[in-house]
Amino acid sequence: MIRVVKIGGNVVDNPELLREFVRDFAALPGMKILVHGGGVMASQMQKEMGLTPVMIEGRRVTDEAALKVVTMVYAGWCSKNITALLQAEGCNAIGLSGADGNAIKAARRPP
């Protein structure tokens, strides 16, 4: 059995909560996959870059500029930070995005 655990951007963006989560996740026995958010950080980065995050009914509208930012944040900083924290807890980890190895195929949602 493989456990799949999802954490949101509110945990990813809070260093204390993230460290606590990583310790608990690393202690889980067996194979596991962590799926993480990062929307809080992505929105903050968009603002720092002079862009305005657009959300409709809780869903991020990702035009080309927003897609670049969320890719940098999720597949870059968030993924590598979490991977490093897991490694520090003795949990051998790799960070992949859904695009890596064509792991996740997606279709555009209707507007």
List keywords for this structure.
111 residues, alpha+beta, two-stranded parallel sheet, two-stranded antiparallel sheet, 47% helix
Report the strand count.
4
The total count of helices amounts to: 4
> Helical content, roughly?
40-55%
Question: Could you tell me the radius of gyration in angstroms?
Answer: 15 Å
* Main structural class: alpha+beta
Question: Can you describe what's shown?
Answer:
Helix 3 packs across helix 4. This protein has four helices and four strands; from the N terminus they run E-H-H-E-H-E-E-H. The chain is of the alpha+beta class and 111 residues long. The strands form two sheets. A two-stranded parallel sheet has the order 1-2. The mean pLDDT is 93.
Summarize this structure briefly.
With 111 residues, this protein is an alpha+beta fold. Helices cover 47% and strands 13% of the residues.
Topology:
Elements: E1 3-7, H1 9-12, H2 15-27, E2 32-36, H3 39-48, E3 55-56, E4 59-60, H4 64-88
Parallel strand pairs: 1-2
Antiparallel strand pairs: 3-4
Helix pairs in contact: 3-4
